[in-house]
Write a structure and sequence with these properties.
- There is one protein chain.
- The chain is of the alpha+beta class.
- It has a single domain, classed as Hypothetical protein apc22750. Chain B (Translation Initiation Factor IF3).
- It is built from two helices and four strands; from the N terminus they run ββααββ.
- Strands 1-3-4-2 form a four-stranded mixed sheet.
- A hairpin with a 2-residue loop joins β3 and β4.
- The radius of gyration is 18 Å and the shape is elongated.
- The protein starts with a strand and ends with a strand.
């Protein structure tokens, strides 16, 4: 599965636009992480537990978007984006979305 944040794929011709595809996950903070984050907020530095939480959330949302695209028979997802939203205090949703397409390799002369 090819993924692109652009709307074209060099070396490929888009033969069919299938549909918008998406994948999401909702993650909540953990009390232990909040305590450590509070300490980091005072002394400074990266809050690695939150960084890891967001990395995992992005990977899960992207995997679900890819599964959605594969279900449609897509070869690629173009115009891929991430968006986040607060669901409730301490919980956020992360969505990966884009346009599922079928593509054909072209010969570059």
């Amino acid at each position: 599965m090819l993924l692109s944040t652009t709307y074209d794929l060099p070396g490929y011709k888009i033969t069919e636009h299938l549909d918008v595809v998406r994948g999401n996950t909702v993650r909540a903070r953990h009390l232990g992480r909040d305590i450590m984050a509070g300490i980091k907020n005072i002394i400074g530095g990266e809050i690695t537990s939150y960084t890891e939480l967001m990395v995992d959330a992005r990977e899960q949302a992207m995997a679900r978007m890819i599964a959605d695209a594969e279900h449609l028979g897509a070869d690629a997802v173009i115009g891929m984006r991430f968006v986040t939203a607060t669901v409730m205090q301490g919980a956020s949703e992360l969505v990966a979305y884009g346009t599922a397409v079928r593509i054909q390799k072209i010969d570059l002369v």
